[in-house]
Write a structure and sequence with these properties.
With 431 residues, this protein is α/β, with parallel strands linked by helices. The chain has helices spanning 2-21, 26-46, 63-78, 90-98, 118-128, 142-150, 167-170, 172-182, 193-202, 215-226, 249-265, 280-289, 320-323, 344-348, 363-370, 380-392, 394-410, 414-426, and strands at residues 55-59, 82-87, 109-112, 132-136, 155-160, 187-190, 209-211, 240-247, 269-275, 295-297, 311-313, 329-332, 353-355, 374-376. It has 2 domains: 22-213 and 413-426, 3-Layer(aba) Sandwich (Rossmann fold), CATH 3.40.50.11720; 229-410, Glycogen Phosphorylase B (Rossmann fold, 3-Layer(aba) Sandwich), CATH 3.40.50. β4, α6 (142-150) and β5 (155-160) form a beta-alpha-beta unit.
Length: 431
């Protein structure tokens, strides 16, 4: 039923919507151009394909999922498999262009996924001839799944989650539709037992759902080793560095007042502010608030490294995770808007963190706060009380950071488990 409805109604409607919206949205427009032109690039990309080697097709929709996939991708490449990676967003395209795949064998193809029409996916499969298709987390394209399954190619889903409030779970229509997809997977590797329970409720009778953990932990630890610090002010050395990462104005309303008091009370405190969107107005607002403590912008640091201010504004995107290497304590933004941003990265660097009340989107934020290793705050007074407590006992703060780091490291292993399960299923790299 669902393939008929999807191809007759849902897919044509989605294409119509994209055509209407794309002229007014540069990101969607770039994706459309990339999907259309992928066929021109395909012959050149596949010309060196070794037909004796098994080919694994990975799909990671955006930059975040590609980063999560990277250790698993490199594992397959380093074990002599041919690999291709598809994505959907301009963010993935930009990230891939500046990243390094640490493997002697490189992917044959890193490009956009074609439009999800039955005809195009059949053509794609005929060109690629993959031995397996691996989806990362979500972004499940129906015809891609149905046609790959129809061709007898095993399909896998790694780091799968099914939140209790998602329409995939609470809606009868959603359950019915996604059951038509989940039933085509050879194996689904979920993050937690609760995910497995919900998947089984959605699609009863499936015996292919296994709890393997979240590959994000492996990716975060992998990226930790790759990060390189930018040039920083010389006076940051030996300071207690508080990092305000991915912050929005509502986050700043909660924490700026207490941080200003702390800057006055503790001369050893150095503040790094990294807005989620480093617009001129946002940067200028932070500079104005902390002007008496001396502010600098990262992009404007002079080569002499003689800055004496105690506040560094980050006006460059893509380097926040590297800055966590020098952090002592942090606040992660998003908890007063759509949901807390990445707390895994700072904790992997040994930084205990604060965040706002909206953190239920992050399983690790929930667990870390439950264990007393991270601190949700709802009011300026609540933040101030805990901040000063931690500044008064910096040894305790460091120990909390060490425990948070141990928690992240102990969650690793999903990449290896996923790799071993897939290889056991499809066999060695050489036909």
């Amino acid at each position: 039923m669902w393939p008929f409805i999807y191809n007759l109604v849902l897919f044509p409607f989605s294409i119509l919507l994209v055509r209407i919206v794309s002229p007014f949205n540069d990101k969607i427009k770039s994706s459309v151009v990339g999907k259309k032109s992928v066929w021109k690039r395909l012959p050149e990309q596949l010309k060196d394909k070794d037909t004796k080697r098994k080919l694994i097709w990975f799909h990671a929709p955006s930059a975040g999922e590609f980063i999560q996939l990277q250790p698993l991708l490199e594992k397959f490449l380093n074990n002599e498999y041919e690999c291709v990676v598809t994505y959907n967003s301009i963010s993935a395209e930009k990230w891939i262009k500046k990243t390094t795949i640490q493997a002697e064998r490189q992917p044959l193809l890193l490009d956009y996924l074609p439009f999800d029409s039955k005809r195009l996916i059949r053509r794609w499969l005929k060109c690629l001839k993959p031995d397996a298709l691996v989806f990362v987390k979500y972004d499940l394209w129906p015809n891609t799944i149905w046609e790959t399954f129809r061709a007898g190619i095993p399909v896998y889903l790694v780091s799968a989650t099914l939140h209790r409030k998602t329409k995939r779970y609470v809606s009868k229509l959603g359950r019915s539709f996604y059951k038509s997809l989940y039933s085509r997977f050879r194996s689904i590797f979920v993050v937690e037992e609760d995910d497995k329970t919900r998947f089984l409720e959605t699609s009863p009778g499936q015996n292919n759902i296994k709890v393997y953990g979240d590959i994000r932990y492996d990716a975060t630890l992998d990226q930790r080793e790759r990060k390189v610090l930018p040039t920083l002010p010389g006076n940051i050395k030996d300071k207690f560095v508080f990092i305000l990462g991915s912050c929005w104005p509502p986050d700043e309303e909660c924490v700026f007042g207490a941080l200003k008091k702390a800057m006055e009370a503790y001369p050893f405190l150095f503040l790094i502010i990294a807005p989620h969107e480093p617009t001129e107005s946002h940067l200028a607002s932070g500079e104005s608030f902390f002007r008496e403590y001396g502010t600098s912008r990262l992009s404007q640091l002079d080569k002499s490294n003689t800055q004496t201010g105690r506040v560094l504004m980050i006006d460059t995107v893509g380097i926040l995770s590297a800055l966590y290497k020098i952090g002592s304590l942090g606040y992660i933004g998003g908890g007063f808007t759509t949901g807390v941003h990445n707390v895994m990265e700072p904790c992997a660097m040994g930084i205990p963190v604060f965040f706002g009340p909206k953190h239920y989107n992050s399983g690790e934020a929930l667990q870390l706060s439950k264990d007393g290793l991270a601190f949700p705050v709802s009011t300026p007074d609540e933040f101030e009380d805990k901040l000063f407590e931690l500044l008064e006992d910096r040894n305790k703060t460091q120990e909390l950071g060490n425990q948070a780091q141990n928690y992240i490291e102990n969650q690793a292993g999903a990449t290896e488990r996923s790799y071993e399960a897939i290889v056991k299923d499809i066999g060695a790299a050489i036909h």
